[in-house]
Amino acid sequence: MDQARSTISKIFNGEPRSYTRFNLTQNMEGDNSQVEMKLSSDMDEEVGGNGVGEHAKHHPHQSYTTTKPQQRPPRNVCFMVAGIMLIFVIGYLIGYLAHRKSDVGSPACASAVSTNGEDDTIYQTETVSSLDWSDITSLFKSKLTQDSVEKSLSEFSSDSHQAGSPGDEALGNKVLKRFKDYGMDPWTDEHFVRIQTSPPSGANKVTFRGKTFAESGFLSYSALGSVQGAILYAYYGQMDDLRRLQDLNINANGRVLLVRAGKISFAEKVANAVSVNASAVLIYPDPADYSFDRETDLFGHVHLGCGDPYTPGFPSFNHTQFPPATSSGLPSIPAQTIRASTAAAIMKEMGGGNPPRGWADGGLQVYKLGGDDDLASVDVNNVLVEKKIHNVFGVIKGFIDADRYVVIGAQRDAWGPGYASSTVGTSLLVELARTITEMKNKNGFKPRRSIVFASWSAGEYGAVGATEWLEGYISSLNMKAFSYISLDGAVTGPTFKASASPLMYDLIQSTLKEVTLPNDPSKNLYSQVVGSNWETAVMEPMKMADSAYPFQTFSGIPSVSFRLTSDKDYSFFGTSLDTKKNLVINVFRVGALVKTAGEIAGNVALRLVHDHLLKMNVEKYSSLIRSQVAQINREVFSLQKSNRIPKTLKMQWLMSAMGSYSRASRRLLTLIQNSDLADTEQCRIINDRIMGVERNLLSPYVSPRESPFRHILLGSGSHTLGALLSHLAAIKDGSAGADIDVLRNQFALTTWTIQSCANALAGNVWEMDNQV
Questions:
Q1: How far is CA 570 from the centre of its chain?
Q2: pTM of whole model > 0.85?
């Protein structure tokens, strides 16, 4: 094309037309980029210097024979010039049209011109979308309307959709149809999972002082059978509560623990009871914590884990060869929920002393600890059944890194209507899919990376559907899925709270500053934050019962679970009273709050798929590691001073690994600050290093079947830094379970897990700073 222009210019002007070529080069020593500018005449000189002209210059004695050109008649010359001009005009038009077609036909890389405000230097960069961030957020907010959200809430509301039921399948088909309508080419995954349901009689039984109480509520995955023991009131069943009883010289061995619902999950309450050798657990909703009728049944599960506990570490596909194994998180004692009225009747007849201060602050008339003669019988006869469940998926594919994706997920099943627990999340899921699809198809939004929308089943049994999917595709998911956003239980009040990977804290903070309050568009959600430390006010530890927990601690995928809530927990989860009516009564302006929740999730997802570099701060883990290592160091120093542990156990290796991670994270931030965002390959390399942090904090030294939550900072098990601290506390207390050799092993494995993470974050092997 340029040659054609040059030739025509020579014909008319006799001189070539100069043009300018700009090359953006990266200055790795600072933030300023250098721009190289060359004229065509300079290029001609360079070409001549390397070609025939240079050859003639260095060989002056070489002779050349020249002949005088033959003269042509003026008429022939005119015809020749006219013919040449016609040929080049036709060539010019063909080249122009072909060039224009090429520009229009390439959706993945559009040219954008940027201007540096300081020196007005113009340079060319490569971008995916013609929309900037403010355009994208404005467009997203305009399309995610309250009317459309409320229509989806009505469409996906259902009175009965327990996991694997026809109601659950019907909702799944609705989600699938909506995804198809959006042109997302959706798909489904089938899993065959085992869950416990209520006994054939419809109720389990509790017998106390000759009176039998039939309880329609139940706890899936409880141990089965009939046991007896004296009832012991243990408040909320937390470990602190059980230690309080030990301080009062009350032995829980063989007792039936009566505990309140709340504070911690049902599974944790039962696991704590097992640790003190209790014979069974009865869990009731105290009227002080739950505002519903005293005859209301509670439902839940007691698997201290996620997924199908009868295929631990394996996906429950129909073709899977299942090993003869069960999850270590299954309880060994029966557990049963009882109504508040049953708890009141039992407590009224109990003996024993008065409970510790605060334990009697409830809604029952009488509170007693219980005596040795307060014998009760607990009969649990749940039925283990196999259910076929469906997970439903849709995808919006990215234009640059299509094989990198964020997953947005919502639980679809519920014990009853499940309006707050599942209907809100499912409705938000399909509305986010609709909105972002429209932005892509109609408004020119071109995400760099992909978004996967997932509707899970069997969430009420411990994120079973989600975990089975993770187990089935773990080898690719933890390499390609860079984040998970949970929509479960997203709206129960006006105040924002979240649990997330520390990598995502900065992204959450910026999101709060961009999403406005539903009742006051002049203010953002960040204005709700009380105090100078927003993380303390907003962020909470991610609990095992959280649906995002297996993504974070089993798969090493940075995750966020958020909710708009109130000071008092929504009391209808796990009951048949989780209805639209009760949510509307307890929460003002539900529709507006659901739209706000959608804006939060959408803002996080769009930022992750729009930016050249993932908005994740790897330095956040430096402070968390430093904090825990400092606690360990204090305990080790104290125990060595009192000769409880040998001085040969050195802290220097763990401290060195901590320093390696800190240095690697700082160097990556420096690289990011000096990176060329137009360099697609460099951005991908940096993003892969960011994505690897969470995955590399999973301990490689424990089995995912025996210890599935392998994250050494946020997970659960003997491999974690928290377990190391607990072991030091056990040595300090003189516990029989303390073992110095085990402690040394914990030190070694945690040290090398952190060091390995630091090595991977540093990049190539020749860039590592391994001081251990």
A1: 23
A2: no
Q: Is residue 559 part of a domain?
A: yes
Alpha-carbon distance of 688 to 693, in angstroms, equals 9
**In terms of DSSP bridges, do strands 34-39 and 20-25 run parallel, antiparallel, or are they unpaired?**
antiparallel
Which residues partner with 486 through β-bridges? 409, 561
- 410 in the same domain as 516: yes
Q: Answer whether residue 391 is part of any domain.
A: no
Token pair recorded at residue 600? 């939060």
Give 769's pLDDT tier (boundaries 50, 70, 90): low
Does the residue 772 lie in any domain? no
Alpha-carbon gap, residue 132 to 142, rounded angstroms: 16
CA dist 401 to 128, 131, 447, 683, Å?
11, 18, 9, 10
Distance CA 63, CA 723 (A): 89
As a whole-number percent, the residues of the chain with pLDDT over 90 amount to 75
Amino acid identity, position 549: Y
- Can you give the CATH number for the domain in which 704 is found? 1.20.930.40
Considering only residues 584 and 112, tell me which one the structure prediction assigns the higher pLDDT.
584
The pLDDT assigned to 40 comes to 34
Domain membership of residue 742 (yes or no) is yes
CB 696 within 8 Å of CB 756: yes
Q: What percent of the chain has pLDDT over 70?
A: 83
Q: Does the pLDDT value for residue 47 go beyond 80?
A: no
The residue segments making up the domain with residue 236 are 199-381
Nearest to 686 by CA among 482, 407, 450, 406: 482
Q: Tell me the one-letter amino acid at 166.
A: P
For 230, the enclosing helix (H) or strand (E) is strand 225-233
Shared domain for 359 and 210, answered yes or no, is yes
Tell me, yes or no, whether 499 and 566 share the same domain: yes
**What CATH number is attached to the domain comprising 257?**
3.50.30.30
Average pLDDT over residues 479-499: 96
Question: What gap in Å lies between CA 309 and CA 463, rounded to an integer?
Answer: 11
**Angstrom distances, CA of residue 494 to CA of 147, 154, 490, 505, 588:** 19, 21, 10, 20, 8
Dist CA 81 CA 72 (whole Å): 12
Mean pLDDT for 713-732 is: 94
**For the chain, what is the total number of helices (H) and then of strands (E)?**
23, 22
* Number of separate domains in the chain: 4
563, 489 in Cβ contact below 8 A?
yes
User: pLDDT at position 131, please?
Assistant: 86
Same-domain pairing of 425 and 299: no
Give the DSSP letter string of 694-719.
HHHTB-TTS-TTT----BTTTS-STT
The tokens describing 670, both together, are 């420096």
Domain boundary, last residue among 85, 104, 127? 127
Do 604 and 505 reside in the same domain of the chain? yes
Same domain, 519 and 443: yes
The residue type of 469 is W
List phi, psi (to 5°) of 117.
-65, -20
278 and 345 fall within a common domain: yes
Q: What is the Cα–Cα distance from 337 to 383, expressed in whole angstroms?
A: 16
Same domain, 172 and 206: no
As a whole number, mean pLDDT of residues 356-371 equals 95
- E strand or H helix at 521: strand 520-524
Rounded to whole angstroms, the Cα distance separating 107 from 593 reads 36
Measured CA to CA in angstroms, residue 414 lies from 10, 374, 573 at distances of: 78, 36, 9
* CATH number, domain with residue 449: 3.40.630.10
Final residue belonging to a domain, choices 350, 381, 412 = 381
Closest CA to 432 of 186, 179, 238, 715: 179
